Amino acid sequence: MFPGILITKDDSGYQAKLTQVDPTVLSEGDVTVAVEYSTLNYKDGLAITGKSPVVRRFPMVPGIDFAGTVSSSSHPAWKAGDSVILNGWGVGETHTGGLAEQARVKGDWLIARPSAFSARQAMAIGTAGYTAMLCVMALERHGVKPADGEILVTGANGGVGSVAIILLATLGYRVVASTGRPEAAEHLKALGASEVMDRATLSAPGKPLGKERWAGVVDTVGSHTLANACATTRYGGVVTACGLAGGMDLPATVAPFILRGVTLAGIDSVMAPLPLRNQAWARLAQDLDTTQLEAVTEEIGLDQAIARASDLMAGQVAGRLVVKVSHG
To answer: pTM, whole model, 2 decimals?
Structure first.
């Protein structure tokens, strides 16, 4: 038995609690990992609070990310003692996840933790930071250069937004951060944003086309925000869509795409192939300022994760929440 968060659903309802987890609860896999750190992402908040049907099997250990050390393996790529990280693959949804001291997963889902990062730093990055890098790489792949103009980052106070600002500013882009927290303006500027705008400018229903402004966009919000971002992107610009904090709908028209040649690039971090994952983590090791990363990171214990998941859903968390899972 080992400590972990377990989500159950029965006649008494949906419940997440910190408990002693029986190893038989763990999903099948050919690698067992002693988890050192995990993290709380938006999806973890949905799973723990039950605000959305993220969890597809019960009982479930939530946590879509973890960093730790291989304790046993029958997979040819991994041996005991290897330092590994995992992001996505349905872990914490359909396959038991990282918010427990042990995880059992398929070895094909793991990647080696870059030597540039400690386990704690890897989870300060987590799916949020890895997704931010996938967005940056998509902008680069479509030819968006710093000289082309401003990059809009929506949901700028969240995990993806915070890391995206750090990365883009480090790479020389001029970043405009959109947030619903005006009191966070100086913090966002310290991360590298050149300007901070009120999210209300983008969150209301807008016109099919607006004044051209953005060379590129990193959108974590969806709904009207994404529609307005597309409508105000410059000719030939690129909008990366990676989140739905504001809604899953997209109340837009085809106008930006057929009249301005705007590209809407979908970013999936959950099932991204291993070569792309490895490339993203290599770029993070190369380009991410870990000093800036620390400025947006808060460490909590496993015993605090359930309460902080509710804070996350209430919009009361800025940046990244890292969960220290192991007491070793």
So the answer is: 0.94
